[in-house]
Write a structure and sequence with these properties.
The chain has about 190 residues and is of the alpha+beta class. The chain has six helices and seven strands; from the N terminus they run αββαααβββαββα.
């Protein structure tokens, strides 16, 4: 079986950066996102990069005995399998989805996954890039809670509050007390 490192270099032959396997390996290993190379026939994971190992906790030997759906909770495995197979028939050759990945230690994290079909050393692979979005979701929730807190303070404040454009002075929003004091309505 061909190693994923046997990919021909995508760079022009005369490029000083062209070192074939070494270039691909360096890009693969230093990528800021988790990357998996998956066999499309068996859905076995043929390789994963350092970031993937950090995220999922599996060693190279452990991951080599797994299929891609095995990284996900049982209730999502059929969706993962379907998504991986869709890449093979998609006219775009790629697909994305938001799922939950389970680490070696049982931790569940929200991930955004993008898949594409690639050819390497005469074989096809499904290239899967996985981004941990749990931090982004947590930040979004904090922002939403902060906005709600501000909205309540603004609307229910004992003082008259308003938001206006700086240049024109056009009122954008007023609270209930502002309506009472100045007679404006929303």
């Amino acid at each position: 079986m061909t190693s994923p490192w046997d990919l021909p270099s995508p760079l022009h032959e005369s490029s000083p950066l062209d070192s074939g396997k070494e270039t691909f390996r360096a890009l693969f290993e230093s990528a800021p996102e988790a990357i998996y190379l998956i066999d499309p026939a068996t859905l076995c994971i043929r390789a994963h990069n350092r970031k993937a190992a950090e995220m999922d906790g599996y060693s190279d030997q452990e991951i080599a005995r797994m299929t891609a759906p095995g990284l996900y909770p049982p209730e999502e495995r059929s969706l993962v399998q379907k998504g991986l197979k869709e890449v093979l028939t998609s006219s775009f050759g790629s697909a994305s989805s938001t799922l939950h990945q389970v680490t070696k230690y049982g931790q569940v994290r929200s991930v955004e996954e993008t898949r594409a079909l690639i050819r390497a050393g005469g074989e096809q692979f499904i290239l899967t890039i996985v981004r941990d979005v749990a931090g982004r979701q947590e930040t979004d929730e904090k922002i939403k809670a902060s906005e709600e807190k501000f909205r309540k303070a603004f609307m229910l404040g004992a003082d008259a509050f308003y938001l206006a454009t700086l240049m024109e002075g056009r009122l954008l929003e007023v609270n209930d007390r502002f309506e009472d004091v100045f007679g404006y309505t929303r």
